[in-house]
Model the fold of this input.
Amino acid sequence: MGAFLALLMRPQHLERVARQALEDAGFSLVQSDVPLVTGGGWRADIVAWGPDPDGELVAAAVVECKSAPRSSSSREDVLGQLARAASVLGSPSCYLFDGSRWFIADHRFSELLLVPGPSGPGDFARPLRLSDPAVMERFLNQRLWASLNRQRDSHSWEAPTMQLADYVEGLLQDPHGLTLREGDELSRVEVNRRTLFAVVLRQVQGLLSPRRLATVEVGTDDRLVQTMVRLARVQSEWTLADPFCGIGTILWELEQRARTEQSRLHVHGVDINQDTARLSAALAALSDAGTSVRAGDAFNWLLGKSMDCIITEPPINVLLSKPRDYWAGSTRHWEPLVIARCLDALRPGGRLVIHTARGWLWHQRDERFRLELANRARITALLGLPDGLFTSTSIPSALVVVEKSPPTDTLIADLRDDWYEQLSPGGACWQRYVELVEQG
Ligand SMILES: C[S@@+](CC[C@H](N)C(=O)[O-])C[C@H]1O[C@@H](n2cnc3c(N)ncnc32)[C@H](O)[C@@H]1O
Done:
């Protein structure tokens, strides 16, 4: 009779019955139709999440639901599906539920053995913990997409930074952990905050990637950011800023550097775009490293500052509506003004590392600025980079290092595709740079 009933059960009903059995066995977090690879159609019918003996949340059981898979080939298909799911999720128990009976796969996935029902999670230490980045990403992707879908009606994807800011701020409301299922206290886990930050940052960068959104200008290239921070030769207790911080890629690299070198840095970010600044401020709160981010105009914020170092990538091709006065006259052109304002905001001996377009290096209209800059500051390095390092454009760019110190020689290099290796420890250009900086 049981098998006959099972033949009549629709797949959703089959899954509902199986979920109930898992919940009755003691699993508080049971999910249906779980994607096994990001964006792919490959899914497990049911995954029950539970603690391992140390209380770490793992995929404890995977279930395939199939009404009466009688033929040996359909049983083999089920065993193959369970084996693949187990290899992705690392689940120790893999079941087939046919509507009335439970079968467990043996450890070689060669046989299905009849069992009375699913085994429960057993006793475990509270609180439940989550530190595996792959498992965390799985839950966070579900949460991110639920948050984006909720907002779909009220905002368009024209404002992705606003939607992502809402998402990250939502995570901050779970101050000591992460609620994996809304309204369910039992599904709350204590998360490793560093892993949480790293996973959320990867989600944000992935969604704002120029490959997805042609319009974004945030999210500086990772290798470029590493290089800029390396060129800055940051020292412990320095106060640093990125006054055009976007989503904060430079700020997070500085935090990471401070953590690995066990140094202390005072890091500030500013962005004129309210949503972008709100997103970066939420990320800063999540990272919990003391970085401050605010919304504002860099030109106002820089006034009267005395920073040890500024590392930044301002926007390119900006023409101001009105000329502004500065120490080389008056200009509507962006790069001279940005460099001048950043230089003014450094303490004596402070350092600016900036990624800019190259026009100001040769354009006649900027000649007075170049001469004045060479008199007032130490232009330590002018490093031409290959095309394509500015997000969303292919225009050629340069890395410029300027110090608020008396002028000395300048390292000038026009780097090609091996720019990253050239500017990494062991690279010829890096070696020359270090010698020059250390000559002082
Ligand atoms: C090239 S993006 C910075 C990318 C950043 N490094 C990141 O990783 O996201 C330049 C940023 O400067 C901001 N911006 C433009 N004008 C500004 C101003 N006057 N003051 C502060 N920020 C400004 C833009 O909103 C944009 O986020």
Observations:
- The chain has a mean pLDDT of 88.
- Residues 133-151 form the longest helix (19 residues).
